[in-house]
Amino acid sequence: MPEEDLQRTKFLKLPFSFDRDKLEEDLSRIADDEWINHFNVKACEKRWCCVPLRSVEGKKDHIVSSPHETFEDTEILDRCPYFREVIDSFNCEKTSVRLMSLEAGGIIKEHSDGDTSLEDGMVRLHIPIQTDPEVIFTIGGEKIHFSRGDTWYINAHVRHGVQNKSNLRRIHLMLDCPTNPWLEKVFKEAGYMANKKPKYGDPGVTDENVREVIRQLKSMGTKAGDELAEKLTAKMGREPAGLRDS
Q1: Structurally, how many domains does the chain consist of?
Q2: DSSP characters for 202-243?
């Protein structure tokens, strides 16, 4: 099943907006030498870097996000009161929280961050602090500009990339939040459409694959084979053409 058939909401604007001037004020508290180059250098053109505000054990030089580690605020967040207010306004746990920067003219090549969607149990939120209409995300083939000061969800499990065609350095506050009932309610009220579940559990399994398995089971001429073929036929929702007994 094609990925585009599985992903119904690739991005979503959530009902949270923040003070642009206060966001900029806290951004000014970040020193130039606190920006760390992203580890995936092959995925970008020009500089892509970040500042950890919450990281593994609160380390200000640790930018790798892992769901199995202990996350704590970094000392950088201590001097950014409005960032903390923004982060605390989301009624859910936060793991990695980072400022993400893409240099003017920069490109983040299309890629996929596995298991990073509402259904996967990890929500990724973007709050643009410094941006321009010429900063464009491509998410699952769709193009979108994330407006400044607003809150945007991206299904990062879908292939996505960014082009900064402006003369401005693009900077987002990015939060990774484990899914909880509060988030699910917010998303539903914002118009979220849940992903369609793969018919057979694995998106790589198609009706044609199953038809071939049913043919092979029936050709065995055994009771067990016939029973399993019947179960698979029921799973498909109808008996596939060409497989009915003549």
Answers
A1: 2
A2: STT--HHHHHHHHHHHHHTT-HHHHHHHHHHHHHHTSPPTT-
- Per-residue model confidence (pLDDT) at position 204: 59
Domain containing residue 102: CATH number = 2.60.120.330
Same domain, 219 and 140: no
Q: In this structure, is the dihedral angle defined by the CA atoms of residues 180, 181, 183 and 184, taken in order, positive or negative?
A: positive
Provide block-wise average pLDDT over 10 residues at a time, the chain (246 residues). Answer: 55 97 98 91 88 92 75 96 98 96 96 87 96 96 97 94 97 96 95 69 68 84 84 66 39
pTM here is 0.77
Claim to verify: residue 202 and residue 168 sit in the same structural domain: no
- Tell me the CA distances in angstroms from 107 to 4, 46, 111, 114, one per residue in order: 23, 7, 12, 20
Amino acid sitting at position 134: E
Q: Choose one of 153, 171, 189: the last residue of a domain.
A: 189
Domain span at 154: 3-189
CA atoms within 13 A on the CB side of 171: 16
Residue 23 phi, psi dihedral angles, 5° rounding: -60, -45
Please check whether residues 116 and 15 belong to one and the same domain.
yes
